[in-house]
Design a protein that fits this description.
The protein is α+β, with helices and mostly antiparallel strands. It has 18 helices and 17 strands. The chain has a 5-stranded antiparallel sheet. Strands 7-6-10-9-8 form a 5-stranded antiparallel sheet, with helices on both faces. Strands 12-14-15-17-16 form a 5-stranded mixed sheet. Helix 2 packs antiparallel against helix 10 (about 300-345) and helix 10 runs parallel beside helix 11 (about 360-400). The longest helix is centred in the first third of the chain and has 61 residues, at about 15-75. It is found in: Cell membrane.
Amino acid sequence: MSAFNNVSKLISIRTILLSVFLLLMILPLVVITYITYKKENELFQKQVSQYLLQTVGQTQRALDANLSEIDRLTWTLLYEQSLDFLNGPLDSSYPLFEANQKFKNMVYSNLFRGRLEHIRAIYFITAGHEVLSTENLFYTYEQVDRVNIQFVMDQIERQPLKMNWFSDKRSIYRLKDGFETPVRASVTAARRLIDSNTAKLRGYLFVQFNDRFISEHLRNVQIGSTGSLLVTDASGDVIYQQDPQLSQNNKISQAIQALPAQGQGLQIVDGKWLLAFDTSQISGWKMTAVVPINELIGPNQKILRYLLMMSAIGALVAVIVSFLLATAISKPVINLARLMAFAAKDNLHVRDTQGPIQEISILQFSFNRLMDRIQRLIHENEKQQKEKREALLQALQMQIHPHFLYNTLDMIYWMAKKHKAESISKLVTALGRFFRFTLNAGQEWTTLGKELEHVENYLQIQSFRYRDKLYYEIELEPEVAYVNVMPLILQPLIENALEHGISKSQDGGKVMIKAFRSEDNVLIVISNTGRQVDLEHVRLLLQNATSNNHVGLRNVQQRIQTAFGTEYGIEVAAGEDQGALVTVTIPYRLAALQEDQEGA
């Protein structure tokens, strides 16, 4: 009962199979889903980042094209004589007024007539600090912001041949409070003008643009749904911004200030925002796109939901398939185990139906054969037990006859003694011992010493039969006297020696028996004189179980090999002069009594 309780605590095969199937099906599904999502997320972010960077680059190039056009419009001032009106003295109001009118006409009619909707005002400050301006309120150098103009002059001197661009923060002139116009100032373009003939400095040209100049190119640029575009100059001053709130974020502002002065690239800020920037080679402006990362991975989250839904469906299918597979495999095994437990309670009539699975079908077939075999063995055992009981009753009844035989032989012995017939008394004594051993030969084992004693009684009886024609010798090493041996295995060999050897000789013959130990074996050598035997014929007869010749010899061979193994048995050879030489090989195994005596 305890063994059954221990078995009931073990894990069932269905649980093991279901666990294994689920592990083999769901684990790869989870791993594949995770890897797919990670790889797809990386690829998606990379693609979005590259797209964002390309958008910024293309927008920057479009803006640079606009700036390059302004630069190109001023080239004529470098190589033509369009500024000859500056050659005369401008130390009085009238020449200055007339020069200012010519300046307005030149810039409005010739230079920038196609871009007037983008221009707020144009200034020209000569080398002598005279001011020519399209802004009527700006007419003297004293109105100039000295800090800003010095900053602008320094920047222009670093790149004297290029158009320089500045934010509204660096404007050299600002209207006073109350004079603001609806058109707001934006950026200022400035360049240094020289006389192409004399290479003398004529002055500095300033073109102040309104807010439409940049916004017309950038306002339609969409950076995601919540992203923003920001343009700053080389000093970090904001030139244009779509969403002022993002630029007010300290971390974003610090990240923009820390960006490299040149080139383009991507950067993640605080794990929340993605920055894509590109630096203009023309103006030095840095265009930065700022977009929340959550917005970028939003579509990816939708893909993740789809993946999770597919994984859930796959897991459900895996559970169903695993359950069906585990049931299909474990059900016949569980049923077979139940039948075996039922058969263990002596219910041997149970049989299992063979299923479609080959290996389990073999187990079911073997179980059915085992049950059939057990029932046959039980039936045969019952039959044998019944026959044994009947034989035992017959043996008990036959015990009366040996007692009568022994008493009769004993009476003959004493009568022979009385009449002094010594040969008869010896014959009767030998015959009594022979019958006593033969009748008690039903036991399974005897010793080699007793077996040879029985053979000696047999030879003594036969010597009376053959009178003076039979001689025998028996040599037994003491250490093999107590070796286990089956009863009556030597008598058939002696009978063959007498029957086929000595009885055929007119002069009689001799039988020699030697028993000795050879390593782990015991050799019993039986030799006889007389007529030579056909050894090949004898070997064939030993192998032929259906032959009626040499039945006793074949019976001994089978008994020895059945008891000890096929490596033991009988070998027949020719004698040295005549007759035959039979060698019996058995293992050296002492009887239990002798072993107990040696141990003591």
